[in-house]
Structures are given as C-alpha cells and as structure tokens.
Amino acid sequence: MKLALKINSMRLKISLCLSLLFIGLHAQNQPPMLFQMYYQGYERMPNFHFVSLSEAYFSHLEKEPPVIAEDYLEYAGFKEQNYHVLSATNRKLFLDRCGFNEKDFLFVYDLDSNITLKFPLRKLKVSAFLSLYSGENDQPFHEYDYVIGLEIDSNFLPLSYNVHQNNFAIIASENPFEKANTEIMQFTEMPYEHVPFVDSLSPKDSTSLFFFKYKYGPLQIIAMDRGEKFRPHYRRLLVYDLRRGVYINSREYFDSEGSSVAPLSIQGRNFGANQWVGPLIKGHGPILFGFSYQSFSCVNLEFLVPGQMPLPILCDNRH
Known about the structure:
The chain is of the alpha+beta class. The chain is built from three helices and 20 strands.
C-alpha cells in the first residue's frame, strides 16, 4: 500500500512538472501583441506621440468599474476631445485588465530608421481622448468612444526618428526585437519566360501581367502583378526555394473598398512604397511587410516561410 502511494505520488509530481513545463513553453511561444506608435496631432487637443492600447482592452469594455472617469462619460461636455490622463487607480485597472505590468517596457522598432526605442512603462502617462469620429453631438459618451493608450513626449525621441506607420510596438519585460536588421527589398523586372512556373501557378491570361523578383538568401521572392506596370490592382507573391526548385509560400493582394496593392520598390525607380524582409521578432521567422495598404482595418505582419500565422497589428483604425 505504501509503495503504491509513493508511486502515485511520484506520478503526480512528474505529471505536474510536465504540465508546468508545457505551460511555460506554451507561454513562451505565445505571439506578442503588436501595436503602432503615431503622432497625435489633433488641433483640438495636446500633441504628442501615442500608442493606442484600446484593442487590448476592447474585451473588457463591459466590466465595472470603467477606467474612464465618470466626469468624461455620458453627458460630460466636450473640450479638447475630452483628453485626460487616467488616475492612478484607473491606470492600474486598465493595465491589469490588458495584462501589462508597471515593470514592463514599451519597445518600439522603426523600420525606416532601424532604431529600437525603449521606455519604462511606469514613466509613461496612460491617457485617453475621444476618437476622431466622436464629437460634441455624439453624447452620451461611452467607454468605447475613447482611445486609451501610452503617451510619449515627442522630446524623448531622437531627432532622426521619423514615425510613420512602419513601426512596431510591443510591451514586454525584455527586448522582443531581433538585433539582425530587416532589409528594404529592391525588386528587378523578370522576363515572363524566366519565371519557374508549375501548372497550378501558370496564369491562363498573361495580359497586363508583369513579374518582378528579389533574392533573399536561397529564396527568390517573385511578385506577379496584374494591371498597370507600376500600379497593379492584383498581386500574387510567390516564395521560390532555389535549392529545391519548389514554391514554398504564396500570398495574394488585391484592390478592394478597404485595401489596395502597394507599388513595389523597384531598382532604378524613385517612386514606390518600401517592402521589407528579414528577422524582426525573436522566436519568429523572417517577416514580409509593405505589400498592401488598409483603409478600414489594420495590416497584418506576414512571414516569409509557411507554418506561421500572420500577426495582426492592433492599430485601432476605427471608423
């Protein structure tokens, strides 16, 4: 009986250790929440750089108490977009609900300048203001009407730092970004007869079809664009393994009411958007970024090789 109890106890300990190990590994592989920093330049309120965390909070909107003070809810009046800094109590409530810790840091990596910025969370204001689509006539105001996030004093940014929408912000205890640089892709035109087609990828109609290529290590990235040569309305992006002679990944982009195909950065041409490839986030493969625009939502961060789901960028692009 004692031996059986010891064996069962040992089994329980082993099972518990394995469970904790699995949970730890699972937690390490959890995809990070990606945000973006932008310049808040509304004329009706103070100006600063800002990272909206609203999309991390949306699932908590119905919880009580709200993190927006009562003075700014319901029929609260309207002044400077009702901008305010959250009280210490509401700040803690907001960060706790979002899963962030005051000991964490805000890391912002900008693709254009190749600079990673680091800010202690405890030194940043958590502020809120009515979204651009809320005005005085939209009362009563609700928690959802507010953009809530981290306020960064523009004076803290390097003079060379030019924030557009080509940056990624992550809240973490350690720097989540790779040290190795991403690179701007410079495509070159590819003759139709040089494209390594397979039957499933061969286009039935080659009218208004143009091909461009970029070599990244042993991989060749091929853009199959349809429409005007430098203003396509459809793109199929193919990743070809030069060593094995096979396609390993494929993406499609097309113009729609809320999205459009970005013009390629082509060698020898000054006009075009930038596209990037390379390592970005630790524990994840090389990224692909900059191939499309979104008007009514946020673009995803895509990966070069298959097996990794795109990461949504929580840019709070509400309409």
